[in-house]
Write a structure and sequence with these properties.
Strand order of the largest sheet: 25-24-34-30-35-32-33-31
Strand content: 25-35%
Bound molecules: 2-acetamido-2-deoxy-beta-D-glucopyranose
Oligomer: single chain
Largest sheet: 8 strands, mixed
Helix content: 10-25%
CATH class of one domain: Mainly Alpha
CATH topology of one domain: Transferase(Phosphotransferase), domain 1
Shape: globular
Radius of gyration: 29 Å
Distance between the termini: 53 Å
Number of strands: 46
């Protein structure tokens, strides 16, 4: 549970605006301190010092000089000067033009150079100029240039020649004779630290006119752009079909590089970078969700990346989490794994029982068969063995052999680390790999299966519990110190929570006088904090149930924040009292607006925005946070409406954590009839797809303005039809207009209605694998993904067939 205690706190030094205003230039004699920043003229980029704190027990943090996107509210590093030489303390830090004309980071009090634009000061004498000729300017492109003040076209140094992991528009990847540099992108070590990682985007070192992605420990590229044909790179299909970017490849005697520009720069904020996963990913800023949205990734499949999950792991493109340890192995470094750094891979739980003694080898190991895998790592082909048992023996006879396979009469053995194992669809030609394990890891299959399920269930609850214990511990420590009541933890974007005293909440709610609502677990009251913010206070009753719900809420939404998730402001935990404090939602919950006749009619455009917003909130819950959270109770009652009807998902009392190494979780049935996915009923372990199902049901209700459970409709033959089935039929017939809430009087955008209809019908498919992920749903709304006509959900049809007579 170490990784839970090592909580990463990203402290972004928010610069305090100076009285003299922001500038984009440092002139000789001026200095940029830790509190200042340069901002490009167009306001898109800023340069300054920022802090990334790895706040474990020893509270250390690293300082970097870098450029970030200034036009967007989410802190996004784009360039870092000292990525591999972090500065430990911000005391006396300054950026200035040095007396030799270079740009340096100085310790003012000791006058020592910590970082310099011309490396370790021994390279050449190009900078031996007078410093008062030189200025540093942050250009609109995000390029930090050191140039001659009287003649800015004389560039002495530029950050574009030393890219980190971000491919700026207009920057060049490749070789330049003038600087002698071969510029390339190097991924980050993990999702927090900007230190150099293992993946590179560079010109093909073999001289072919293409760019390639390579891993530092492998000489063979795992992706290439294809050879430049004069107009485009064959492996960038988007650049051919829908040209948004103008890519060019230049080859002459002085330089050879790849660059790109946007055809319409004003329309997007683009962030293209070499991701920690080893993929070149392009993000576009979406104002609506206040977040980056991925547009494309190369290679498309993350399992195509060399050693994507590290040694002794299996990569799965279809089902998150994409990386899992092989059987008998456990994650080497959970902290790194949590931060998307998979280089360590997995470790053997029990050492192999193999002793080599001269020319004889004795081994007690066994083999575990993994079906439907593909292995791209090269193996040793062994000629002698004629059948599978001889092949197994050949592996046992060599203590460095870790796996074998036998197919088409060929015996292959793998030695030492196993890399690039990939789970594939069984219908395609997958192989069976026999993995060598200690006999201790394979005692008895029957027993093992149960152990796995128990492990899965306890693993998750232990994780939840430890988080809870951690919160409580922090709380107790705080109380002892009687100091500030602000806990700051979680990751970037996760603000702190306040721990309230019971008496404060009593006062805030005027002794719990104004009740907003009630539920199975407790009642909700309106209140006011000192600064007159309105809050909703949920007081949990029933000690035991309440405790469970309290824990679920604090550990799930306490650590994550998103515009479409209701914000947990804080909590109170005194004796047996458990209270949760949320931001107050002036417009109540969605069910009131949809189903109550006295509520004002929700216009179509509002409904569409609500559908989209809920999808974003769920997508964030499922994929963007460190641990996947399944809400388990999506229904209109749990969708609150904020100012201007921005939807916020609420009530996380039933939420389940899905640990990083699990794709499913076993849990007792929970949720609400009418929104329950079929897999609940069959009792298998669930995935985030149960939320997708419930979301589909909610979409139908948003469209019809009625409960799905009993929507009578005149379908010509005077039969009441279960509405979801009716929808599926109408989509197949191509008639969606008749499905709409008649109160809307056709004041709708039919294209949007069609999208919502199709999305809903895909979401309620019986088979969870047929349903889209919430991320895909968001992409459909954003127009980044096509959607086909969905098939009829059969189970629903069957249920409807047997129950239509009882529905009135
Ligand atoms: C600068 O030097 C002072 C005195 O040696 C030291 O306390 C401080 O931590 C240094 N700052 C940096 C950024 O190294
Ligand atoms: C300093 O630069 C020279 C020339 O580029 C290089 O050979 C040397 O290894 C560098 N030294 C350090 C400590 O980085
Ligand atoms: C540049 O610096 C030199 C030496 O400090 C000084 O003599 C000269 O006047 C300066 N030039 C300008 C333009 O400031
Ligand atoms: C800067 O430009 C001026 C005028 O063109 C020139 O005299 C000076 O030598 C240049 N300085 C450098 C460092 O190139
Ligand atoms: C490369 O492989 C060596 C030996 O396997 C390992 O020690 C090193 O950490 C690897 N480097 C990277 C960047 O993965
Ligand atoms: C694309 O970029 C190249 C090189 O920068 C330029 O020559 C060409 O005109 C650009 N094409 C378009 C359509 O902008
Ligand atoms: C690129 O330039 C090199 C050196 O100038 C030359 O040998 C090579 O043929 C060029 N490639 C193309 C495609 O023009
Ligand atoms: C560029 O995008 C802006 C904003 O989306 C749009 O108004 C403008 O017409 C576009 N220009 C071109 C040439 O497409
Ligand atoms: C090991 O091999 C060597 C040479 O192949 C042989 O002389 C020796 O007797 C063998 N030892 C055993 C224990 O088989
Ligand atoms: C494999 O081949 C060996 C020798 O050729 C033979 O003794 C053994 O019975 C065979 N095993 C199987 C399962 O066919
Ligand atoms: C085991 O296999 C490795 C790799 O093929 C080989 O180098 C080594 O000599 C083998 N060891 C024995 C004892 O056969």
């Amino acid at each position: 549970m170490l990784y839970i205690l090592i909580v990463i706190v990203l402290l972004i030094s928010l610069s305090i605006p100076r009285s003299y205003g922001v500038t984009d230039t440092i002139a000789p004699g001026q200095a940029l301190t830790v509190h200042d920043k340069l901002v490009s003229k167009n306001g898109r980029y800023a340069l300054g010092f920022f802090e990334i704190g790895v706040s474990s027990s020893q509270k250390s943090s690293n300082w970097y000089l870098g450029i970030w996107f200034y036009g967007v509210p989410k802190f996004t590093q784009a360039w870092v000067a000292n990525r591999d030489k972090p500065i430990k303390s911000p005391t006396s830090l300054e950026l200035e033009i040095y007396h030799d004309g270079s740009l340096v980071v100085l310790n003012r009090s000791t006058s020592s150079v910590i970082w310099s634009s011309h490396g370790n000061m021994t390279r050449n004498n190009k900078f031996a100029s007078k410093s008062n000729d030189t200025v540093a300017v942050l250009l609109n492109s995000g390029n930090l240039v050191l140039c001659n003040s009287s003649n800015p076209s004389i560039v002495l140094w530029q950050s574009f020649d030393h890219l980190a992991d971000t491919f700026f528009i207009g920057a060049k990847i490749g070789w330049d004779e003038a600087t002698g540099l071969n510029n390339r992108l190097v991924s980050r070590k993990n999702s927090v630290s900007p230190a150099s990682g293992r993946y590179h985007l560079e010109l093909d070192p073999s001289g072919v006119d293409q760019v390639v992605l390579t891993a530092s420990n492998s000489s063979v590229p795992y992706w290439s752009s294809g050879v430049w044909n004069g107009q485009y790179f064959p492996s960038f299909p988007e650049s051919i079909k829908q040209p948004v970017a103008n890519m060019s490849f230049v080859n002459n005697s002085h330089q050879k590089y790849f660059t790109y520009s946007l055809l319409n720069e004003s329309s997007y904020v683009v962030y293209q970078h070499l991701h920690v996963t080893g993929q070149l990913v392009t993000f576009v800023w979406i104002d609506g969700s206040q977040d980056w949205s991925p547009v494309n990734a190369y290679p498309k499949a993350r399992c195509d990346v060399y050693a994507a999950c590290g040694p002794f792991s299996v990569c799965n493109d279809d089902v998150p989490p994409h990386c899992n340890c092989l059987k008998g192995f456990t994650i080497r470094s959970p902290e790194d794994w949590e931060l998307d750094d998979r280089t360590g891979g997995c470790l053997r739980k029990n050492p192999l029982g193999c002793i080599a003694n001269g020319n004889t080898t004795s081994s007690t190991d066994k083999f575990y068969a993994m079906t439907c895998v593909s292995l791209s790592q090269s193996s040793n082909k062994i000629v002698a063995p004629q059948n599978i048992s001889e092949c197994a023996q050949a592996c046992l006879d060599n203590c460095s052999c870790t796996a074998y396979s036998f197919s088409n009469g060929i015996c292959s053995n793998w030695h030492e680390e196993l890399l690039n194992i990939r789970q594939i669809q069984c219908s395609s030609n997958g192989e069976t790999l026999y993995l060598r394990l200690s006999a201790k890891d394979l005692p008895n299959l029957q027993k093992n299966k149960r152990g796995f399920i128990i492990g899965l269930a306890t693993g998750t609850s232990v994780a939840t519990l430890s988080l809870f214990v951690f919160i409580m511990l922090t709380l107790i420590l705080r109380k002892k110190r009687e100091s500030s009541i602000h806990i700051s933890y979680g990751a970037q974007g996760c603000n702190g929570m306040t721990v309230f005293r019971y008496t404060d909440l009593q006062r805030a709610t005027k002794k719990f006088s104004e009740k907003l609502g009630g539920g199975g677990f407790g009642s909700v009251f309106k209140g006011f904090l000192n600064d007159s913010t309105t809050i909703a206070v949920k007081r949990l009753d029933h000690a035991c149930q309440g405790e469970k719900q309290f824990r679920a809420e604090v550990s799930s939404i306490g650590i994550i924040q998103h515009i479409n998730l209701v914000k947990l402001v804080g909590f109170c935990c005194e004796g047996a009292r458990r209270l949760l404090v949320y931001e107050h939602m002036p417009n109540g919950s969605l069910d009131i607006h949809l189903f109550h006749s006295h509520a004002a009619l929700l216009e179509w455009s509002t409904r569409y925005q609500i559908a989209w917003g809920v999808a974003r909130g769920l997508a964030y819950l499922h994929e963007s946070c460190r641990a996947c959270v399944i809400h388990c109770d999506i229904k209109p009652e749990n969708i609150l409406l904020g100012d201007s009807f921005v939807p916020k998902i609420a009530d996380f009392g039933m939420a389940k954590f899905l640990g990083r190494d699990f794709s499913r979780v076993l849990t007792s049935m929970r949720g609400t009839i009418g929104y329950l996915a079929p897999e609940w009923i069959s009792g298998v372990a669930i995935t985030p797809k149960v939320d997708v199902y419930a979301y589909g049901m909610v979409l139908l209700e948003i469209m019809s303005g009625r409960r799905n459970s009993c929507v009578p409709c005149s379908c010509g033959n005077n039969h009441d039809v279960y509405y979801p089935v009716h929808v599926a039929q109408k989509i197949l017939e191509g008639d969606v207009r008749s499905l709409l809430d008649h109160r809307l009087h056709d004041n709708v955008n039919l294209k949007e209605v069609e999208i919502v209809c199709k999305v809903a019908c895909w979401c309620i498919q019986d088979n969870e694998f047929d349903r889209p992920t919430m991320v895909e749903v968001v992409q459909i709304f954003e127009g980044l993904r096509e959607i086909n006509i969905p098939p009829m959900p059969r189970l629903l049809q069957a249920i409807a067939g047997s129950s239509s007579s009882t529905c009135s």
